Amino acid sequence: MVADKHIEVINVSKHFKTDSGQATALDNVSFEVNRGDIFGIIGQSGAGKSTLLRTLNKLEDVSFGRVFVDNIDIASIDYASLLNLRKKIGMIFQHFNLFSSRSVVANVEFPLISSGYKRSEARKTALALLERVGLQEKAFDKPSKLSGGQKQRVGIARALAHNPEILLCDEATSALDPETTHSILSLLKEINKELGITIILITHDMGVIKKICNRLVVLSKGKIVETGSTHEIFSNPKAEETQRLLSPLSLDGISSLNGYFESKPTHQKYKKILKLSFPGKTLSQGIPISVLYLLGKESEIIKSNIEQYESFILGNIIAVTPQHLDLEVLRLNPVIKDYNVNIEVMGYVSDHAG
Predict the structure, then answer these.
(1) How many Cβ atoms from other residues are within 10 Å of residue 193's Cβ?
(2) Strand 38-42 vs strand 215-220: parallel, antiparallel, or unpaired?
(3) Which of 80, 237, 240, 303 has the fewest CB atoms inside 10 Å of its own CB, making it the most exposed?
(4) How many domains does one find in the chain?
């Protein structure tokens, strides 16, 4: 089945003038988003994520390159056509951007009234959207009475007002606690599946990508350093920036090594910290014991788990292994190949570490 291309970004660069000269926010960026994707754009602060997101609805003009939405070059259309296009593209913001003096329902109906809807029709639509996001009982409250998660639900309802085909999420969960983040991501997944809306979200948190995205790009200093399915990138991250972004997830649960863990061996005698990852097709009965045997009796398993991602399962083993373990030989072992195991050196500890 041929994928239905919804958005295409071709060789996009964006430059800004500064007091000290020209700054590059985006540098020759290219990627595609298919219809129905939940697509992640991840990178550290300053990577260019927000600038890139804003080029997709022409809130930010590109310096070079082209952006296509539904095969339309958005730089080539007139202002009236651009306004119609933007009705198809909803946007959710990190800090909610609600009118504090207006009720919740008035916030949701605002874009409809602004585009010419009758007030009665706008009110009916807004109330239905609030019911869709589980906030109908808060319709006539002011935003000041809502929690952060509830405010973001209002933001989502408002973004859905024009029945969009695309939803842009600008760090939509970064101001929320973990439990609320989970509920908002679950709501976005429901919207994607039930309404068929393409979702593009930017974040600095690989945990968010893990929970919701099927595809992603990794952005660093305005350049794409890695792109692919979430499965491919989490199973076998190739770029250093991707590995850095994934390291908090990998290191979770091995705090016993705090104070010993180093990126390079600094002692004559040391042990290697390995992460072994393998895809879910082999995990119907758990992590294969044959893989564990290959590490040898001197190795210590300090973490193993099976993680459920949006569209796949990934098994992980983190082990402290002896200095003499030959990784090249290990990678060539038929068992490792059969289970498609990726082996990554996470770091080193002294052989005398506790």
Answers:
(1) 11
(2) parallel
(3) 80
(4) 2
Residues 125 and 262 in one domain: no
Distance CA(283)–CA(77), nearest Å, equals 50
Last residue within a domain, chosen from 189, 205, 238 = 238
CA–CA distance, 64 with 25 (Å, rounded to integer): 12
User: Mind listing the pLDDT tens digit for each residue in 158-181?
Assistant: 999 999 999 999 988 887 888 888
Q: Could you tell me which of 9, 5, 7 has the C-alpha nearest to residue 66?
A: 9
Terminal Cα distance for the chain, rounded: 54
Two structure tokens written together for 277: 């990852």
* Same domain for 262 and 233: no
* Residue 245 resides in a domain: no
Q: Which domain holds residue 337?
A: 253-350
Radius of gyration of the chain (CA): 24
Distance CA 89, CA 44 (A): 25
Token pair, residue 281, equals 């097709």
Of 133, 180, 140, 127, residue with least CA distance to 154 = 133
Share of the chain above pLDDT 90, in %: 52
Supply the pTM of this predicted model.
Answer: 0.80
Query: Per 3-state DSSP, what percentage of the chain is helix, strand, and coil (rounded to 5)?
Result: 35, 30, 35
Our measurement of the distance from residue 153's CA atom to the centroid of its chain's CA atoms, rounded to an integer in Å, reads: 19
Could you tell me how many residues make up the chain? Answer: 354
CA quadruple 261, 264, 269, 274: dihedral sign: positive
Provide the greatest CA pair distance for the chain: 77
